[in-house]
Amino acid sequence: MSSLTPLNHLISRFQQQTPIRASSLIITLYGDAIEPHGGTVWLGSLIQLLEPMGINERLIRTSIFRLTKENWLTAEKVGRRSYYSLTGTGRRRFDKAFKRVYSANLPAWDGSWCLAMLSQLSADKRKQVREELEWQGFAALAPTLLASPRFDRGDVNATLLELGAQDDTIVFQTTAEEVLASQALRLQVRESWNLEVLAAQYSEFIQLFRPLWQSLREQPELDPQACFLARILLIHEYRKLLLRDPQLPDELLPGDWEGRAARQLCRNLYRLIVTAAEQWLESAMETADGPLPDAAESFHKRFGGL
């Protein structure tokens, strides 16, 4: 265990999950740490990196096998060793899941909305479309009407096409309004997006990671392995929150929105530990060609610049 009490608490909390979500943590590891360094790593390195998290070798091998079957990972054999990397499909999934995590700031909102009317879809198809669009930040204003003030029209069209629902879904885009957020609209947003639940989850995140941030700031010298473990747990928990967060514009959020403080904490903690964590990764990870390649240029642009 680490000498940092807040980090030990986070590790114990992860280990107490039933069942331990090893596959999800491995995806976090690939997205945050392995992909920027070429995306391929020896299985033995994965085992070494995750063992302090309480994930034994058997569970790691089982999880890697499952992720390979689900087309997240692909293996390359070199001699008796197996090296794993994200598949093309896995990389696209990763990009979609992680692109919001490291972004600097959201663009200003112009007051426009995207509306998707699902009334012409069958019940089963409507359920599919609703689930996928909600994952992109949409919410129901009425039983068959979804809306989002933050949207990528290309992503919406691609989702509808992939689900075979493009011809039977009516999509509108509203024009910008001079008054971006009336009281009635803010009340509707709180109701449709269930912001109270998300705010409570952000508050829990802050309570979990603020003591770690404070403890690490007081260290005369940062321990590379502890920083790596802290970094993976930080991004793992923050990523899960962002998958539930519709990323609504500030105009539609409460003035004391906990998501802002959580993002600032995540950015500050990541910047504090990233250099030491990279040192641990370079010493622990091995590729088929030997040492770990340098991180891609995009890695250094995370959170507006590391």
UniProtKB/TrEMBL annotation:
GO biological process, one term: DNA-templated transcription
InterPro entries cross-referenced by the UniProt entry: PaaX-like_central, PaaX-like_N, PaaX_C, PaaX_trns_reg, WH-like_DNA-bd_sf, WH_DNA-bd_sf
Chain ranges of the Transcriptional repressor PaaX-like C-terminal domain: 193-282
Highest taxon of source: Bacteria
Domain Transcriptional repressor PaaX-like N-terminal: 21-89
Pfam families assigned to the protein according to its UniProt record, in alphabetical order: PaaX, PaaX_C, PaaX_M
Domain Transcriptional repressor PaaX-like central Cas2-like: 108-181
Name of protein: Phenylacetic acid degradation operon negative regulatory protein PaaX
Species for this entry: Pseudomonas tructae
